[in-house]
Design goal:
The complex is a heterodimer of chains A (373) and B (327). Chain A has 15 helices and 15 strands. With 373 residues, chain A is an alpha/beta fold. Chain B starts with a strand and ends with a strand. The chains are: A alpha/beta (373), B alpha/beta (327).
Chain lengths: 373, 327
């Protein structure tokens, strides 16, 4: 028996077992059911920098049925290193070459924001499913083209908004939905950090990244929309350039954004300008309802205090704003949706709306006016 | 020895100020006027302290008084200040200074003409954490995130607080009532004037939040209101986070309780409020400004500036756009 028929038999056999198991244990715990998913699916991770390193590789490795078949980065060393870590078959430095590989089912894009649209569209047109990091794109026009490309190709496009998979925000959302604090009226989401990249990095280039507003603010907009479950009507925002890198590049490193929803108000406080040692206090979430308040903060939940001649708060989680397992659950959700042709928790249309609101905040900062959505 | 008169028991702050005056070595409470809400409590206190009691505010009340403390409903401030100024009596007037800008201007003008000391007490000014922050800040303040939440006045037992919910009498609801304290602290830290305000206040004026831009570029987000109405939550919640070019300063609740609350854990958590140090400090400052014949630290103009930001906030929330200052 040659190896192709062998692997075919294995795949068919495992599908049969999967179906039997699903029928037998319809009420299997969530996680156990998930393990059976994604069998035989081949993923290529494109862009092997930070988010790939810290989160996506971990996520893919924890889904048993999925294989990381290739890595790809314009920097050869990075692609090679990621390839080694993941035991992928190949690594590429040119995505077009990767796209001509018929073995690959899914392209996972961990590339800079300004490349999201171009590479997503290329991959969709090559007949691949696409998972693309948030924000959906730098410009709304680009995002629209992405939606069209997905429609035309008949392939799936998923934008990764991992907050919705983080158990902390899930619990808070559940609690709010259950009416624990009455009707939620106000949410404040704060995410602050010290962007650790040099002045010439694409993050500091507003044209490429959208600054802290698009990079971090998009997460916050997502969280607010999700928890309130209502539409944003008006946006008002202010931006500041505090760090040397921000001033050099004319890019905001602190933004404050008001969102007016149907009845509710949301406030977003996002910054790259908080000193490095501030890191343990990265994020907080406050909700005020008609019948009580809710507070969440890393500074309550996550501090480690080291006392020497000075008091220090060492950061012990590389991704304090998102639980690492959120990425795993997010990828599981996408794998599930690809297999069953279902809509994910954050649809591409919802991702488009999140981008639209975030860019309205950018417009508000530019014009100094309230922007109606 | 200064003879002090207490005017009105409408505002619950009076329950903190009367003991502070009583324990001050250079002060005697000589008269109490019960005008406004809680007149019965005022009368009982006058009997306890053994001082003269007045049902209404008349000229005779001001005779032989050096100074008064006003804890009336804010809409009465104007009238009381006028009478006191004419009699040459110094004034410690609880916040807000007035219910609108016109009256605030008139109050400041009247007090000036009368040649009296006029002070509005803001407790936050005296908190050690705030003073330490002020000392630590070098260079410009870039950003401040400030929260102040208070107990909903409706929850104050055995005390008539119904006027808090009457805009004519109180001037504002939760956003203004609580936020004004923090605005004073913010102005103290930033040392600049507000130039733009954008605010969203919930429709019951239970709480609100504002983005305030200052002349020196500082950006402030303030959220305040009566959002501590339930259970055994601490009376006050306060957060002040300051970002300068290279420093972040985070102050949590001790801003208001320098001797921090303690908590007993049994079937449920029981908090103990150990009082606020700001009240005696305000009394001290007021008394010393009279004895040393100098301006008090918190002048009418300061109270007016915080009032102006607050009023601009209400206009902004109503119109749904940013409002420029001065009004």
């Amino acid at each position: 028996m040659d190896s192709i028929s062998y692997s075919l038999i294995v795949i068919i056999f495992s599908r049969v077992i999967e179906n039997c198991l699903q029928k037998l244990f319809k009420k299997l715990p969530y996680r156990d059911r998930e393990i059976l998913e994604g069998i035989g699916m081949k993923v290529a991770v494109v862009g092997n920098g930070n988010i790939c390193d810290l989160a996506h590789i971990y996520a893919w490795k924890s889904i048993r049925g999925v294989e990381i078949a290739a890595t790809c980065d314009i920097i050869k060393e990075r692609a090679e290193k990621a390839c080694k870590i993941t035991n992928a078959k190949n690594y590429y430095t040119d995505m077009n070459e990767l796209l001509s590989n018929d073995d690959i089912d899914v392209i996972d894009l961990c590339v800079p924001t300004y490349e999201h649209a171009r590479l997503s569209i290329d991959a969709l047109e090559a007949g691949k499913h696409v998972i693309c990091e948030k924000p959906m794109a730098r410009r709304l026009k680009e995002a629209k083209k992405m939606l069209k490309a997905a429609e035309k190709s008949g392939k799936d496009l998923y934008i990764a908004h991992p907050r919705r998979f983080d158990r902390r925000w899930r619990e808070i959302k559940k609690s709010v939905s259950s009416g624990r604090i009455g009707l939620p009226k106000y949410i404040r989401r704060c995410e602050r950090s010290w962007l650790p990249f040099p002045s010439n990095s694409w993050y500091w280039n507003s044209e490429k990244s959208g600054g802290v507003l698009l990079d971090v603010g998009a997460h916050c907009v997502d969280l607010v929309k999700w928890i309130f479950e209502s539409e944003v009507k008006e946006v008002f925002a202010k931006g500041k350039m505090i760090r040397k890198e921000a001033k050099e590049n004319n890019t905001h490193d602190l933004v404050t954004v008001f969102l007016k929803l149907e009845e509710e108000t949301a406030f977003i406080d996002a910054s790259w300008a908080f000193p490095q040692a501030y890191a343990p206090f990265y994020s907080s979430l406050d909700i005020i309802g008609t019948d009580g308040r809710m507070e969440y903060s890393d500074k309550n939940a996550n501090p480690m205090i080291v006392v020497k001649d000075k008091i220090e708060f060492p950061r012990y989680s590389p991704l304090l704003s998102t639980d690492l397992n959120a990425f795993r659950d997010e990828m599981k959700e996408f794998v599930h949706c690809i297999e069953k042709s279902e809509e994910p928790i954050v649809s591409k249309e919802e991702a488009y709306n999140i981008l639209k609101i975030t860019l309205a905040a950018e417009e508000s900062i530019e014009k100094g006016k309230v922007i109606r959505c | 020895m200064l003879n002090i008169g207490i005017v009105s028991y409408a505002h619950p702050h009076v329950l903190k100020y009367v003991p502070a005056f009583l324990s001050h070595p250079n002060v005697e409470i000589a008269k109490i006027c019960g005008i406004g809400a809680n007149i019965e409590i005022a009368k009982r206190d006058a009997e306890k302290i053994d001082c003269k009691f007045f049902d209404t505010l008349e000229e005779k009340f001001f005779e032989h008084l050096d100074a008064i403390y006003i804890a009336s409903e804010p809409f009465r401030h104007m009238e009381i200040v006028k009478m006191a100024s004419e009699c040459g009596v110094h004034i410690l007037c609880d916040k807000p200074i007035a219910v609108n800008m016109k009256e605030a201007d008139e109050i400041i003008e009247t007090a000036k003409k009368g040649g009296i000391k006029f002070m509005v007490p803001f407790n936050t000014r005296w908190q050690p954490a705030l003073r330490k922050a002020k000392e630590l800040i070098q260079g410009d303040v870039q950003y401040i995130y400030a929260v102040k939440f208070g107990m909903n006045p409706i929850n104050i037992k055995n005390f008539d607080t119904s006027w808090f919910f009457d805009r004519e009498m109180a001037g504002f609801g939760g956003f203004g009532d609580i936020g004004m304290h923090m605005l004073d602290a913010i102005r103290f830290l930033i040392e600049s004037d507000a130039i733009r305000v954008y605010t969203r206040i919930d429709k019951d004026d239970y709480f609100g939040n504002a983005i305030i831009e200052f002349k020196n570029g500082a950006l402030v987000h303030l959220i305040s209101g009566w959002t501590n109405p339930f259970g055994k939550a601490p009376w006050m919640n306060a957060t002040l986070e300051v970002l300068t070019d290279d420093t972040a300063i985070l102050i949590n609740k001790p801003l208001y309780e320098p001797v921090s609350d303690f908590c007993v854990f049994k079937e449920r958590a029981e908090f103990s409020d150990l009082g606020r140090a700001g009240v005696p400090s305000n009394v001290n400052e007021f008394v010393n400004s009279i004895l040393e014949d100098r301006d008090p630290i918190i002048k009418g103009e300061d109270a007016k500036a915080s009032l102006e930001i607050t009023i601009a906030g209400y206009i902004s929330s109503k119109k749904g756009r940013e409002v420029k200052l001065p009004l």
